[in-house]
Amino acid sequence: MNKLVTSVNAACASIQHHYSGSTSSSTRVKIDSAIILGSGLSNLNLDGFETVCTINYSDISGLPKATAPSHKGELKLISNGQRTLALCAGRHHLYEGHSAQDVATLAYVMRQLGADELIITNAAGALNPDYQPGDIMLINDHINFTGHNPVRAQDDTFGVVFPDMSKAYDVKRLSTAKSIAATHSIACHQGVYIGVMGPSLETSAERRMMRSFGADAVGMSTVLEVIAANHCGMEVLGMSAITNLALGDENQAPDTLEEVLENAAIAGKGMVTILNGLFAS
Ligand code: HPA
Asked: What is the DSSP letter of 167?
């Protein structure tokens, strides 16, 4: 068995073990939707949902170590009696030294535990001059500019070896999210996310190039998880918190982590409203 399959199986068994321990039940956990939370959303709670169990990533065998400073590294299973959601506070990044398959492991684990929907959030810099820090961008497509791919060297255990990516982000979910945002007057765009490896930020010349490629926002995550999600048959909704201006023009200011975190928290409030709208019963 290859390493990815072994890791995914070990992680699923470990989550099942923790779930059975905290619910005193031998029922198998069945996740309906998984949400991967980026910077600013780590402490998400959803209206009407109760926590079933909380597991540290470090207690899930098979799951790579999450080391990014603004990410909690915690899986919370929540339920409203009808639906069980997995809130994944923290993800794995290429820039931490992880492989593409390490980065994608969480998405495959969620699928194996039953999730047919992956909602993914991130922080991103604005390449589109119409965007402001604190805004939200619903991702309608992406450009994988990392040079990596989690499906590389896989067999067909999780899906076909040449997964289709022509509709990587689900149109229906995007349109529902857009109308929830409009109802609540939340500043919300739709656009193309370009994923890079990091951890250095892009040069101004790189950002101007990315704008000319047709990208609207740039970040260091998401694309590999979304490839994995499409590969194993999950529908995807992606949302970017616009945290800084990344136009690469003559006014380009230096990027700071403080600015990113501050604006991630602002956009995060709107994302919570959208998520609550999506899961309101
Ligand atoms: N570039 C890459 N990743 C990011 C940025 C950016 O400008 N902002 C937040 N994450």
From this structure: T
How many angstroms separate the CA atoms of 91 and 258, rounded?
Answer: 20
The reported pLDDT for the residue numbered 146 is 98
Whether the per-residue pLDDT at 281 is higher than 70: the answer is: no
* 260 touches ligand 1 (CB under 6 Å): yes
Q: Is 220 in the pocket of ligand 1 (CB under 6 A)?
A: yes
| pLDDT band at 192; cut points 50, 70, 90 | very high
- Residue 39 Cα to ligand 1 middle (Å): 11
Distance between CA 77 and CA 54 in Å, rounded?
6
Each as own residue / partner, the long-range contacts of residues 180-184 (CB below 8 Å, 24 or more positions apart, any chain) are 180/273, 180/274, 180/277, 180/278, 181/136, 181/138, 181/270, 181/273, 181/274, 183/277, 184/270, 184/273, 184/274, 184/277
The model's pTM: 0.96
Closest residue (by CA) to atom 9 of ligand 1? 124
Determine if ligand 1 sits within 6 Å of the CB of residue 246.
yes
Q: What is the mean pLDDT of the chain?
A: 94
Q: Give the pLDDT confidence of 230-276 residue by residue, as tens digits.
A: 999 999 999 999 999 999 999 989 989 899 999 999 999 999 999 99
CATH code for residues 3-279: 3.40.50.1580
